[in-house]
Amino acid sequence: MFRRVLYPTDFSEVSLHAMRHCLPELVEAGVEEIYLVHVIDVTVAEFEAFELEEVYREKLRRLGEELKKTGAKVVTKVIIGIPSVEIASAAEEGNVELIVIPSVGENIWRLMFVGSTASNLARATKRPVLLLKYIKEGDKFVPSKECSEVFRRPLVALDFSRCSIKVIQTVRKFEGLVERGVLLHSVDYGRMEELEHNIALAKENLKKSAKGLGEKFETEVMVGTASQAIIGTAIAKNSTLIVLGKKGRSVLKDLLLGSTAERVIRDSKLPVLLVPCE
After folding, report:
1. Is the pLDDT of residue 117 over 80?
2. Are 215 and 169 in contact (CB under 8 A)?
3. What gap in Å lies between CA 278 and CA 264, rounded to an integer?
4. Dist. CA 206–CA 31, nearest whole Å
């Protein structure tokens, strides 16, 4: 399991709910250290940022005391700067293995944090990012999957590039929590006359990949748009998590181009684990 995680909070309702309900379950699953971070956005607070620093430090300290009751080591840090940059920097400084962020609805990039912090963070960080999906029911936000279930039935999307190796290595970190999983590849390339050959080759490559993860994982080859295949198969297989890689650090560019990762993150109601592959 991931031993050290970073959780950035903006003190919103969803952020506090995920902190109080999800992080303790991750501790039970094996997390040992939590880096609890709040970034005062200097572009928003401007001259008030330094006046607010002590106020937020005290708020974060109290939240840290709550989390310590889980038995995990908790480090709190208030930073003034640009949120995505500072969170990514804090993740490197703390040598964390996972960043956990709750997200709300389809427009996940903007509802959780001020501006586009989450998207910029995914672009900037070299660490895996777990996006916990929240949905609105009445006047409340509820998680689409409880944290205790997230790692039980993952769907892992592979494209057979070097990125897939990093994705599999990341899955191995929580392999002990998996009840059953799916390794998926979508064939959306090649000419029509090459389709059968590409499907057969993909099946063989998936079998090789599955050997590195054990018998808990079945393999599935689909034909069509990758994002639709990933989301559709996740629903059909009753998956609890979608795992996929992001290539390079230009995720913002990928978002504008409508990449597979962006479409999955935008359209999936399931939590998404985004693995950086550089």
Report:
1. no
2. no
3. 20
4. 30
DSSP state of 261: H
Q: What is the rounded distance in angstroms from the CA atom of residue 134 to the CA atom of residue 18? A: 9
CA distance 162 to 226: 18
pLDDT mean across residues, the chain:
87
Q: How many C-beta atoms lie closer than 10 Å to residue 82's C-beta?
A: 18
Structure tokens at 202: 């993909």
Phi and psi at residue 149, in whole multiples of 5°? -105, -15
Place of tokens 């970073």: 6
More confident residue, 213 or 76: 76
Work out whether the CA dihedral 43, 44, 45, 47 comes out positive or negative.
positive
* CA pair distance 100, 129, nearest whole angstrom: 6
Contact 143, 21 (CB under 8 A): yes
User: Which residue shows structure tokens 């997200």?
Assistant: 103
Tens-digit pLDDT profile for residues 54-107: 899 999 999 999 999 999 999 999 999 988 899 999 999 999 999 999 887 544
- Condensed to tens digits (0 to 9), the pLDDT of residues 182-196 reads 999 999 887 888 889
Q: By CB neighbour count within 10 A (0-12 exposed, 13-18 middle, 19+ buried), where does 44 fall?
A: exposed
> Among residues 124, 145, 111, 123, which one has the least CA distance to residue 242?
145
Name the more confident of 184 and 44: 184
| Other beta carbons within 10 Å of 223 | 12
